[in-house]
Design goal:
Length: 450
């Protein structure tokens, strides 16, 4: 009896090659965290060299978020069309180009342009690696592996921020982006050598030489080679990435995108406003940066803990719990007295649950969307969510400008995660990992896929 290669991947123990793929995706996601924080470190040097005003600097700081949002929308579906591996390689090339060319910029306009280009690459890569991790993991470890991949973001922010700080002590702001370009370029040969194309995608799409490619991967994994692939029905071949807006998936798309957007409104209130809030309280800027560092550490711990909990508890319940507790602790942060230790503690706890909420929704996207829409569905969710990331600091600033005190502003901003938790209640989610699409006939196997 012939075996569906997706079933083999789903139910076999994970090998060192699969663990290596997951590890590489952690590093790829860390590039996102590094990039977002790198521009924050570079802005003072840019302002000093070019003499630009704060408004222009704020525009530059937002460019990568705009690029990421566009990349998620425009490039997110590329991994579903041409494959996970070539999509990641293309996005890495775009990111490397963007980071390097930033160092040649001589004006706010050119700097903003190359920041958008970098953001496009990052925005397109995240959906691809989410699908890659989901499809290289077995069912038992899938949510854990996705969670580990997602914690690359706060790790990249913490480690990359420390490296950027050290480099700026001896070099100008361009050194941060030279470093970023070099690290990004380093991952290109890593992908070429260690990351094969997804077996799930090859089985579903069946391009030329799909069977040969799957068998090469199976040999590396230690599995028996296959004589044929499952036959894909004509109806399934007509399916497209646009199916995320079909009647069967529309509700799922709207629910998880809304929840992701709402949670990021709360998330970026902490990540963008904590330093300013603490400086206004009278604390030194270095102390404020330290608190934000602890929030990132909390986010890393939250992601890892959430991943372990998925081995025992349902994904939807964990997500609702994480978002609810994130709202609670953000509201508590707003009512904390001006004591640095107390503020640090509640920011760390808030970061713990906020990032657990982000990761839970990324895991839900990997489970909720079938193979042919997994990357585009994730990309659409992330693209919508980046809108929340962009809106968050603006909304908080308007609330402060209207005269609201920190406790009131924190409660309003915490509502995002709380409403996100309520929205998730209406999500219908399969109890197990991503199901194999109903795209095979019960009888008949393809001996050739040429």
């Amino acid at each position: 009896m012939s075996t569906d290669p997706r079933e083999v991947m789903d139910h076999s123990a994970m090998t060192w090659l699969q663990i290596t793929v997951v590890t590489i995706t952690i590093g790829l996601n860390a590039l996102d965290g590094f990039d977002v924080l790198a521009i924050s470190f570079a802005l003072p040097g840019i302002a000093g060299e070019w003499g630009v005003d704060p408004a222009a600097l704020g525009l530059v700081a937002s460019m990568e978020l705009i690029g990421m949002s566009l990349g998620s929308f425009l490039l997110g579906g590329m991994a579903d069309k041409v494959g996970r591996r070539p999509s990641v390689l293309f996005c890495l090339l775009v990111m490397t180009l963007g980071m390097f060319m930033v160092t040649t910029a001589g004006s706010v306009f050119s700097l903003s342009f190359w920041r958008i280009i970098t953001g496009l690459g990052i925005g397109g890569m995240l959906p691809a690696i989410n699908a890659l991790v989901a499809e290289f993991s077995n069912i038992r470890r899938r949510h854990l592996c996705i969670s580990l991949m997602a914690i690359g973001y706060p790790v990249g922010g913490a480690v990359g921020g420390s490296v950027a700080s050290m480099m700026l002590a001896g070099y100008d702001w361009r050194s941060v982006f030279y470093f970023g370009a070099a690290v990004t370029a380093f991952f290109i040969p890593m992908i070429i050598v260690f990351v094969p194309e997804s077996v799930h995608w090859l089985t579903r799409k069946q391009p030329v030489n799909a069977l040969e490619k799957i068998n090469r991967t199976f040999k590396r994994l230690g599995h028996a080679v296959l004589d044929a692939l499952p036959e894909v029905s004509p109806d399934v071949r007509k399916k497209s990435i646009g199916d995320i807006f079909s009647p069967g998936l529309m509700a799922t798309t709207l629910i998880i995108s809304s929840a992701y957007f709402l949670n990021l409104v709360t998330f970026y209130f902490i990540m963008k406003w904590v330093p300013k809030i603490l400086v206004d309280m009278g604390f030194a800027a270095s102390s404020a940066s330290g608190v934000l560092g602890w929030a990132n550490i909390g986010g890393t711990l939250g992601g890892a803990t959430f991943g372990l909990f998925t081995l025992r508890f349902g994904l939807k319940k964990l997500a609702i719990g994480a978002l609810t507790l994130a709202a609670v602790f953000v509201a508590i942060f707003g009512r904390t007295s001006a004591d640095l230790a107390t503020i640090t503690m509640f920011c760390t706890i808030a970061g713990f649950f906020l990032n657990a909420g982000v990761i839970s929704l990324i895991a839900i996207a990997a489970q909720a969307f079938p193979t042919h829409t997994r990357a585009f569905g994730t990309g659409f969710m992330i693209g919508v969510g980046r809108g929340g990331a962009t809106l968050s600091p603006i909304l908080a600033g308007l609330l402060f400008e209207l005269g609201l005190a920190l406790p009131s502003v924190a409660i309003v901003m915490a509502i995002g995660s709380l409403v996100g938790a309520i929205v998730l209640i209406f999500l219908k989610l399969q109890s197990e990992g991503p199901k194999i699409d109903k795209d095979t006939k019960e009888s008949g196997m393809k001996a050739s896929v040429a």
